Amino acid sequence: MVLNHVEVISREIVKPSSPTPHHRRNLKLSFLDQIAPPVYVPIILFYDQPKFGHCFDLKQSLSETLTSFYPLAGRLKSSVTVDCNDAGVEYVEAQVHALLSEVIEKPTMEELKQYLPIEPYGTVGTSMVCREVPLLLAVQVNFFKCGGMAIGITKEKIVTRRFVFDKMKLAKLKEAAATATAAASGGGGSQLKDPTRVEAVSAFIWKHFIEVAKLKSDTQRMFAAVHAVNLRSRMSSPLPDHAFGNIWRFSSALATIDNGDLVGQLRSSIKKIDSDYVKNLQNGDGYVEYLKKAKENFSKGEIELCNFSSWCRFPVYDVDYGWASQFGCAP
Predict the structure, then answer these.
(1) C-alpha distance from residue 302 to each of 97, 122, 299 (Å)
(2) Same domain membership, residue 155 and residue 11
(3) Domain co-membership, 297 together with 181
(4) Same domain assignment for residues 191 and 262
(5) What is the DSSP secondary-structure string of 85-122?
(6) Beta-strand relationship, 39-47 and 149-157
(7) Which end is more exposed in the chain, N or C (fewer Cβ atoms within 10 Å of the end residue's Cβ)?
(8) Are 235 and 272 in a shared domain?
(9) What is the pLDDT of residues 29-50, one digit of tens each?
(10) Both 154 and 206 in a single domain?
């Protein structure tokens, strides 16, 4: 692990290349945006000795992109409105006194934080420097002494913790999950023969979460596995994959300490996020009541939460600035 080797060279504000029209100045947040947790989530893109015209190209590209995604250059006016005032996003350049290979080999969350312009998973408005108004987007470009580069981006979104499993371990987890499901089928299990890698990993973590809780308490409790689900393809009129916004919601699977078919529970809960669910979601009042009841149950301490999200199949490895293929990615 290599720490304290990042030196910030410059920090500035980049604004949209063209002004946002006046009639688009006030953007009312959707219901999903309003109920999304107001926290920053990071992504870091690593490039091995890219061929580029230094940071001018990056800043210019960012400025032009903000013209299309103008709300990101604005400021939160209230809990329901973004002032699209072209105030800009923070752009940081930093020199890394280390080799890219040293960082990418066994990255840790503590180390990766250095390549980000804002503290990851912190509440919107908190960062490494004091600001009067919270940013919605910030970018940090890190130059390694070997010629490699890392682009760290923090955007307001949801909370997550990072786990890494290699291909062989994933195969073993899937096999173990299928075996556990088959063993539980006599008691009404789902008999899933081929769990997905997300299902297998989630069930593995959930299982051990339950086992640890069992050691700490003899009380019979319920355990909820909460999974972030992309709603774009689950609507009656599906949205494009690249549709912009917080178009996701949580599925929730419940299990007791003695429940064996965790994979089946997960798949069943995610399948419930369908077009009918989205229609009910569009009736905001009804969904708010559901959230209130869920909060009451969780506040009583009768249910413990284990939260999951997955970046599998997200095209993060396809981000190409025209230099070279991506070397790695760290959410």
Answers:
(1) 49, 27, 8
(2) yes
(3) yes
(4) yes
(5) ----EEEEEEEESS-HHHHHSS--HHHHGGG-SS-TTP
(6) antiparallel
(7) N
(8) yes
(9) 888 888 887 777 788 888 877 6
(10) no
Domain contains 182: yes
How far is the CA of 144 from the CAs of 1, 3, 77, 119, 257, in angstroms?
15, 14, 38, 21, 48
Cα torsion 60, 313, 231, 239: sign: positive
pLDDT at 26: 93
Cα 24 to Cα 16, 72, 74, 90: the distances in Å are 14, 13, 11, 22
**CA-CA distance, 180 to 191, in Å (whole number)?**
9
What residue spans of the chain are helical by DSSP H? Answer: 31-35, 54-68, 100-104, 109-112, 167-184, 197-216, 262-271, 275-282, 284-299
Domains in the chain, number: 2
Say if residue 206 is exposed, middle or buried (CB neighbours under 10 Å; 0-12, 13-18, 19+). Answer: buried
Question: 187 pLDDT exceeds 90?
Answer: no
pLDDT of residue 52 exceeding 60: no
Residue 204: give the domain boundaries: 167-308
Q: Which of 133, 39, 22 lies closest to 78, judged by CA?
A: 133
Residue 266 lies in a domain: yes
pTM check: above 0.90: no
Distance CA 92, CA 135 (A): 13
Per the structure block, which two tokens stand in for 51?
A: 């061929």
- Distances in Å between the Cα of 32 and the Cα atoms of 230, 281, 287 are 12, 9, 11
Whether 1 is in a domain gets the answer no
d(CA 314, CA 317): 8
* Pair 275, 186 in one domain: yes
The residue ranking higher by pLDDT, 192 or 41, is 41
236 and 120, same structural domain? no
> Do residues 190 and 245 share a domain?
yes
Q: Measured between alpha carbons, how far is 196 from 175 in angstroms, rounded to an integer? A: 10
Measured in degrees and rounded to the nearest 5, phi and psi for residue 200 equal: -65, -45
| pLDDT at res. 91 | 94
